[in-house]
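Sugar ABC transporter permease: structure tokens wanted.
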Amino acid sequence: MSTIAPAPAAAAQRAPEPPGRRRRRSPLPYWLSIPAVLVLIAGMGYPLVWQVWNSFREYGLAQQFGQDPTFVGLDNYIQLLTDTGFWAVLAKSIVFMAVTALATMALGIGVALLMKAIHGWARVVLQIALLLAWAMPIVAQMTVWNWLINARNGVINHLLSLLPGVDMIGHNWLVEPLSFFAVASVIITWASVPFVALSVYAGLTQVSDEVLEASSLDGATGFQQLRLIIMPILRPVLVILLLLQMIWDLRVYAQIELLQGFGARGSKYDLLGTYIYSLGVGQGKFGVAAAAAMLVMLFTIALSWVYVRELLKEDKS
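Answer:
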């Protein structure tokens, strides 16, 4: 009786090619990316180099009238790093960034889960509302919010005054720094939630229904599915969204500037964006403002590195 010997497992696998015979990647993608890189260098490289160079010079109002700027080395950076006002603004900006970014992520994930749960025309209406809110220009947003929080005839004060024992008529939300930044955080969160919600919803559509049904048959509750299945699948998307929100909220400028224009001027209402603007344009200390911008850029690069590292992990997987 003859027997057929089973084929060895190694025969079923293709032997790896020698290193010298590995397929070489085509250089075409690199050649095609050259025009984009050149445009970036021309559009961003020159202003960046000029800003770095100005951060080492005394470039103020005198230079606007023809006087040559003088090289001062690290004096602008030393002046900033020894200024308690700069550290106070930096601390406020970091706290504001953390609160606003976390609130945006929490509300965005909640709205995305709501979009996943509802169907038909209700989902379409919600998506259109989110797109309209996201597409609204910043000046239009701030005009609407100024109408809402106006001290004399604001809608929010009027509605709150309808509550028993509450009189908010004439209350100015922008006088106290804490309420000022609370209003700014609400405005920026409201404007950023649509982007997070739509991005997370796109990720939710990629979660397999079969996996959720199988976990449901195994007795998993909705919260357990969310915590143990959905969130791990969406983790790369959530990490990227959180980092982007942190970077955007750290560099916020327009909303703070417009809120200050509504009647809250002063350094106690500044974040990094308005602080740098007031140094350069307001006080004429363009060299110090350039140094502050460089420090903010370094902090942003540190945050962006986490984002880039996450992208590299996703590319490898």
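The chain has 14 helices and two strands. The chain has one domain: 88-316.

Cheers.
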